[in-house]
Design goal:
Elements lengths: L1 E3 L14 E7 L3 H4 L4 H18 L4 E7 L12 H11 L8 E6 L2 E6 L17 E4 L2 E4 L5 H15 L4 H8 L7 H12 L1 E3 L12 E4 L7 H17 L3 E6 L17 H17 L1 E2 L13 E8 L5 E9 L4 E2 L7 E4 L2 E4 L2 H8 L9 E2 L26 E6 L2 H4 L8 E9 L5 E6 L4 H20 L10 E6 L25 H17 L3 H11 L2 E2 H9 L5 E6 L5 H11 L1 H6 L7 H6 L10 E3 L12 H11 L4 E5 L20 E4 L1 E2 L4 H11 L7 H13 L1 E2 L6 E7 L4 H14 L8 E5 L2 H7 L1 H7 L4 E2 L9 E5 L8 E7 L9 H9 L2 E10 L2
Parallel strand pairs: 2-3, 8-12, 9-10, 20-21, 23-25, 23-26, 24-25, 27-28, 29-34, 30-32, 30-33, 31-32, 33-34
Antiparallel strand pairs: 1-16, 3-5, 4-5, 6-7, 10-13, 11-14, 12-13, 15-16, 17-22, 18-19, 19-20
Helix pairs in contact: 2-3, 7-8, 12-13, 19-24
Protein name: Schlafen family member 13-like
Pfam families: SLFN_AlbA_2, SLFN_GTPase-like
Organism: Chanos chanos
Length: 817
């Protein structure tokens, strides 16, 4: 990886974007015809900067115009356009680059690169191929085909013996008479000046004279890497230097040179070529690329002459001529990629298996916060989306400014995407903050979110009280071209899709909320249960913690035909079901959740429910998890061997860190009959998480006297310094009495955080209750406070029940005592 800095203008940035300043260049077709060689080199520098911006999310290049008589109707110059066309082909130049002159500068607006044929844009890929008797560079648009073709050839050879693999990597025309003649000449190892050879050039043979070459070392360094790449990528071949390609006679080369010196020279070139032989991701052959060479002495009358012969085997993957001419911007510097870095980024990503199914028409994007209503969009005729936040900078892992009260990202048709920052007064520091936040948002939309249209994010400070825009000191700053305007509502939708990816990819309260929306999707396992067992009248659904039993139970209720038609659903506790004066004779279908925690002390609830549903040919499904049985009394369920059951093993309701914490407790559950323990052991082995949303799990040990104050401190930190609301949080104790004795209610009241019990829970208050009473419910964030259990053997069950209540963050507070 090599770095180079670019010229920075002392003036402030004109755009909230990547800006590169280039010193004077001549523009216009008439003037470009007369430029010097040094001036032409500037064109190469411009191409490098364009390539860097293409691969770094786009940006602007500002170039001082050298010729004072330049007019915009003169164009930029045919050679400049042709330089762009060379690496953008087959796409038209204007698809990725637009330019306009302003005052004494030429502004090049560069879009982010996107192509199904290449993940990066390269001025030169550094990969050569043989085509007949010519050498061709593999262009940008041919890279993916090249890689796929090579991988296909490797897959075809995987079952063959090693010897056969090596034979395949030798030239495809190895049985051709001409190639056999070339191999024989190579093996003989000597030649006569003027000797007539019986072979000429072909796909796998190249002849070069270099008889009169004065600087042979320079020419060999230029030519040999090209042919080693070309032959290696086309099945192999031989190059002879010192043979005239037209007459096929030996001319010799390196007159007067020492043979050992020539050998060292060629050996160094071959060794470097070996370092440029790379394997694709997933290559199973991993064959070593090892070109051979011979310095063949040519018998002559006066000074010594030689034929340099290099025999190149085919490579199972790819051999580069040199590092690609490919650039990126990183940390304020432009750097070129090495061949290995380039290949790593260029290879196709692994396909993602579709293992989730949406259970409804809801969008993955949560609704924006309610305070969005206070921000008015000036043009009511345009369509779009506005998303408000305390801090968009915090959402994308940037530093928040306390002077900024709130922010709104507005995307509407006919306008530039705009970040409105609401402040009490403007200042240069706040303008710089707004520009940096807008720039980082745009970069992440493109580089992380994969947004492929022309895009910018324009910053704007707004007075919080009046709603009036605060003017910047650069009111005459140039604007982006019209192509950056949001064209239609489809562009808005694409923008929002990319923004969703960005927010999911960065750890923040907002990504946590999006992650929870993901948890509301059905796994393939859950989908199978609801569809293949839809007509099953009586079923026991067993699921480990986090497998989404309650979600499936609710979906099953929605899918029952009678419920869909009548929209009637009655929710009762086990005690009410057994002791109510109502005989429930009108009930046809019964869905039981958390069945393992039912008891038969009020009567045989299972028998009653079964008889009710059988009388009307209704549905009777029981969802249960013996891992979470938090009592040792009889649960009233039939023996496991008598249950017609379906097992759920795929965890989707909890972050991976929480899942890991749960898994450590699974093997500790030891209470229950033998058949239940066997069932639990099997479940523990098969349970697995099906997503990569990490979440957070922390165990916090404090002195008992400081326990509740630490819990309050955590609650305050979550609600005051981030975008979590009280409705995202649950604080759970072993029992309700433990909470009442803790004094937490008084301390929450002091910090003005609303709280409620399970009976009165709502989206505006923290739930504070016991684990058992919160069973079957969830919150994004759960705080467990010094959990203990009686009898002791159900302790792991209670921990599991508590752990699985947390979707994204779990904080486990334990007393040191």
């Amino acid at each position: 990886m090599s770095f180079s800095t670019w010229h920075r203008s002392p003036a402030p940035k004109l755009f909230p974007d990547l800006e590169i300043h280039l010193s004077e260049m001549t523009f216009g077709e008439p003037a470009r015809r007369k430029v010097s060689e040094d001036e032409k080199k500037k064109n190469c520098e411009l191409q490098k900067y364009v390539c860097a911006l293409l691969n770094s999310g786009g940006g602007i290049i500002l170039v001082d115009i050298k010729n004072i008589d330049y007019e915009s109707d003169m164009g930029i110059g045919l050679d400049i356009e042709q330089g762009f066309r060379k690496f953008l082909d087959p796409s038209p130049v204007h698809e990725f680059i637009k330019w306009k002159s302003r005052n004494s500068k030429m502004l090049f607006f560069v879009k982010s690169w996107h192509s199904s044929n290449a993940h990066l844009c390269s001025i030169d890929t550094g990969i050569k191929q043989r085509s007949g008797t010519s050498v061709l560079s593999v262009p940008n648009y041919g890279i993916m085909d090249f890689i796929k073709k090579k991988q296909k050839e490797e897959d075809k050879d995987d079952d063959e013996e090693p010897l056969n693999k090596w034979q395949k990597l030798m030239p495809s025309c190895h049985d051709d008479e001409m190639y056999q003649e070339a191999c024989q000449f190579y093996e003989v190892g000597n030649a006569q000046l003027g000797q007539q050879l019986h072979f000429g050039e072909s796909v796998n043979i190249e002849l070069k004279s270099f008889q009169s070459e004065k600087n042979l070392q320079k020419r060999l360094k230029e030519v040999l890497p090209v042919y080693m790449s070309a032959f290696a990528n086309t099945g192999g071949g031989i190059i002879f230097i010192g043979v005239d390609d037209k007459t096929k006679t030996v001319t010799g080369c390196g007159a007067g040179m020492n043979c050992a010196e020539l050998e060292n020279m060629v050996r160094d070139i071959c060794e470097k070529s070996k370092t440029l032989a790379l394997h694709f991701k997933g290559c199973t052959q991993k064959l070593t690329f090892a070109p051979e060479f011979k310095i063949i002495s040519v018998s002559a009358h006066d000074k010594p002459l030689y034929v340099v012969a290099v025999k190149i085997s085919g490579c199972c993957c790819v051999v580069f001529e040199d590092d690609p001419n490919c650039w990126q911007v990183k940390n304020g510097k432009i750097f070129s990629l090495t061949a290995s870095e380039w290949l790593k980024e260029m290879q196709p990503s692994d396909t993602v298996e579709k293992t989730i199914t949406n259970i409804g028409p809801q969008s993955l994007m949560p609704r924006p916060e309610s305070d969005i209503r206070r921000y008015q969009i000036k043009n009511p005729e345009s369509e779009g989306v506005a998303m408000a936040s305390k801090s968009w900078a915090a959402k994308i892992s940037q530093t928040r400014k306390s002077e900024v009260i709130s922010e709104a990202l507005v995307m509407r048709t006919g306008s530039y995407p705009t970040l409105y920052c609401y402040v009490e007064r403007g200042s240069p520091e706040l303008w710089e903050y707004a520009r940096q936040t807008a720039f980082q948002l745009k970069q992440k939309l493109v580089n992380l979110g994969g947004y492929t249209e022309w895009v910018c994010v324009v910053p704007q400070l707004v007075h919080y009280e009046t709603g009036e825009n605060i003017e910047t000191e650069k009111s005459n700053a140039p604007k982006y071209p019209h192509s950056y305007l949001v064209e239609n509502i489809r562009a808005v939708e694409k923008f929002m899709q990319s923004l969703t990816i960005v927010l999911l990819s960065i750890s923040s309260p907002y990504s946590d909320k999006l992650g929870c929306e993901y948890f509301n999707l059905l796994t393939e396992e859950q989908f199978k249960l609801l569809n293949q067992y839809n007509n099953c009248k009586h079923l026991f659904v067993h699921g480990a913690p986090g497998t989404g039993k309650t979600l499936v139970a609710m979906e099953k209720i929605r899918r029952i035909e009678f419920m869909r038609r009548q929209k009637i659903c009655r929710c009762e506790t086990r005690v009410c079901f057994m002791e109510s004066y109502d005989n429930f004779s009108a009930v046809q279908h019964i869905i039981v959740d958390e069945g393992q925690n039912f008891r038969d002390e009020s009567g045989d609830w299972f028998k009653k429910a079964k008889e009710l549903t059988e009388q009307k040919e209704g549905t009777f499904w029981i969802f249960l998890d013996y891992f979470q049985q938090t009592h040792v009394k009889n649960n009233g369920l039939p023996p496991l061997s008598s249950q017609f059951k379906f097992d759920l093993h795929r965890v989707v309701r909890n972050g991976t860190e929480i899942f890991d914490a749960m898994k450590t407790q699974l093997c500790k559950v030891t209470n229950g009959p033998g058949e239940v323990l066997t069932h639990l052991s099997d479940m523990a082995k098969r349970v697995a998480v099906v997503h990569k949303i990490t979440g957070e799990y922390k165990r916090i040990q404090v002195k008992k006297e400081n326990l509740i104050s630490e819990v309050v401190k955590k609650v305050r930190g979550l609600t005051e310094n981030s975008e979590y609301s009280p409705g995202d949080i649950a604080v759970l104790f072993s029992t309700k009495e433990c909470f009442e004795e803790s004094g937490l209610d008084r301390m929450l009241w002091n910090i003005r955080v609303p709280y409620s019990s399970v009976e009165d829970m709502n989206e505006n208050s923290i739930v504070v209750d016991s684990i058992r009473r919160f069973s079957g419910l969830e919150r994004d964030i759960v705080l467990l406070v010094d959990i203990t259990a009686w009898p002791p053997q159900i302790m792991p069950n209670l921990w599991l029940c508590g752990y699985s209540r947390a979707r994204i963050k779990l904080f486990e507070f334990r007393s040191e005592n």
